[in-house]
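Sync notes, pocket subgroup
Present: LS, DG
LS reminded everyone that the earlier model was apo-only. Rerun requested with adenosine monophosphate included. Inputs:
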Amino acid sequence: MSLLIVGTTALDSIKTPHQENPRLLGGSASHAAIAASFFAPAQLMGVVGDDFPSEYTALYEKHGIDLSGLERSKGNTFHWEGEYEVNMNNRRTLETDLGVIEHWMPSVPSSLAESQYVLLANCAPQLQHHVLKQLKSPQFVVADTMDLWLNIARQELEALLKEVDCLVLNDSEARQLMEEDNLVVATQEMHRFGPRYIIVKKGEHGAILSGPKGLFVAPAFPLKTVIDPTGAGDSFVGGMLGYLAEKGGDIESHLRQAIIHGSVTASFCCEGFGVTTTTQTTRQDIDQRVRELVDLVSF
Ligand code: AMP
């Protein structure tokens, strides 16, 4: 099944207490498309500037990602700079330079407009909505978002949510959106914005799904070493939707498995800077880790 992913294609400069790595391949759509590519052919929509290294384009190609929706514009690629605290959970954005994405309102190429599985990866809700409106008859649409958009584009986000099947966001964002500290209550009340499925990511503590059949609680794969969690959330949702696109058919029957596969794919992302470890991972590695996770939670 065809799977379209739109979002940021970025250069990330990441500082951790142990290392500093400038201008790595990053962005919500990059992480998500690479993660999805283990399961189904991914189509990427994004924009990069003339400073975007050709070896990063080659990395997309290595994963068989369809780049017909990747635009190259004059100017700088979206650049994000972030710093982690010693616990590797708390992160501070040091700088965001929107570059060529600032005024990007793309036309969806006709070859991509028929896509059935769609991930509106984290980017401005206006841009997510603009792309969604051009799609012919998507079967399952997932939107990811972040606190920035809750703060500066709340109305646009609410308008978008009326038209998506699934919203993904992290725990602090869920609490902020619902003004509710209890995460179970916040998760279940979010359906009133429109989506049938709500998924709340809890970092190293996994994720919660709320859907027509109630709640599902998914663990994260326990890691001894976290090198750089940047992009873990995007890898989670990319892996999840990739799995759904691979299976096709009824969403409900595959969603729990999809979430577990997304969770495991995200664990590989955390084991290296940027996409370094994810791009060295194989489908066999993912399946093996899924089996280990099943073992870890069965009782
Ligand atoms: P995550 O760690 O899953 O929250 O995602 C990190 C990725 O989000 C990085 O690769 C960044 O390039 C990207 N990013 C950072 N800020 C934004 C933003 N305002 N909009 C979209 N993507 C962003």
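DG: The chain has a mean pLDDT of 97.
LS: The chain is about 35% helix and 25% strand.
Action: DG to write up.
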